[in-house]
Design brief:
By secondary structure, this protein is of the alpha/beta class. The protein has a single domain, classed as SGNH hydrolase (Rossmann fold). Helices cover 38% and strands 15% of the residues. It is built from 11 helices and 9 strands. Helix 8 links the parallel strand 7 and strand 8. Helix 2 packs across helix 11 and helix 6 runs antiparallel to helix 7.
Length: 274
């Protein structure tokens, strides 16, 4: 791993905006004047604590400009509702859409911040009726909210889980349908879609399973599934750049070796589609 002393500047992500969008993406900013590949996703696509995340590795290997439209903690909503991003992706040779969790999006039970999707805004009347004993003013983040509700009543929580799964499928279909041109759905996680065994809420991407991925398959050009090898996962934070204070967060993310493996898988797929 690479530690950065507290007080020193960390990794420069060259944050940038495109068009009229208020979203901050990872730079350096690309002009998208010629042929390019678009990469849409959450923290893994953004490459938090990674100097060369998989979009940069793909660009270097293929020699084709690759635009990193990753947003930290993003849900499907932030992309499906962003006209500037949709227009850009529609002009790309190929767009890669990372599978993100189902917890960070507005649904029938609660609303999230339109840009910072992990931020819980308010509960609906329906959720308040199901969990009448809960003071929702205590929650600021979706994961904290969901953990508390599941712990309080696993039976009632199943209704919420089913809603999130159905909303994820509908919203992901909407996103890929808006993108004109070839699309790749990317699964990048430390588990296969059919393996959701874990305590608590489960493993990222939260609540997404094999059946949900298969519902999206007919809507995209190709599905690429990457579960990093045991050797890659064992390397942990080796090569990542973070401060001592950021170490717990870094340990929750995919490392450099995992990014190298997903880049290689995408390169093979992109060569077929371009």
């Amino acid at each position: 791993m690479t530690y950065l002393n507290l007080g020193q500047c960390g990794l420069d992500y060259f944050p940038c905006r495109y068009g009229k969008s208020k979203l901050l993406f990872r730079g350096p900013r690309r002009d998208m004047a010629g042929e390019f590949i678009a990469m849409v996703g959450s923290t893994e696509t953004y490459g938090k604590f990674i100097e060369q995340p998989f979009p940069a590795l793909v660009e270097r290997a293929l020699g084709v400009e690759t635009v990193n439209f990753g947003c930290v903690n993003a849900g499907v909503d932030v992309f499906a509702n962003e006209a500037t991003l949709i227009d850009a992706c529609s002009n790309a040779r190929v767009t890669v859409v990372q599978v993100v969790g189902a917890q960070n999006m507005t649904n029938r039970f609660y609303a999230v911040h339109p840009r910072r999707n992990d931020r819980f805004l308010r509960a609906s009347a329906l959720l308040k009726a199901i969990y009448s004993e809960v003071d929702f003013a205590e929650f600021s983040f979706t994961k904290h909210l969901l953990c508390a509700l599941q712990s309080l009543s696993p039976e009632r929580f199943e209704v919420l889980r089913d809603e999130l799964k159905a909303a994820w499928v509908a919203r992901t279909k909407l996103l890929v349908s808006k993108i004109e041109g070839k699309t790749i759905l990317l699964w990048f996680a430390d588990r296969a879609p059919e393996d959701s065994s874990a305590g608590g809420l489960g493993r990222d991407p939260l609540f997404v399973d094999r059946d949900m991925v298969e519902e999206i398959r007919p809507c995209v050009s190709e599905v690429v599934e990457v579960v990093p090898s045991a050797a890659a996962l064992a390397k942990g934070t080796d090569g990542m750049m973070f401060s001592a204070m950021e170490e717990p967060a870094a340990r929750e993310l995919m490392g450099v070796a995992a990014h190298e493996e997903v880049a290689q898988a995408l390169i093979e797929s992109l060569k077929r589609l371009m």
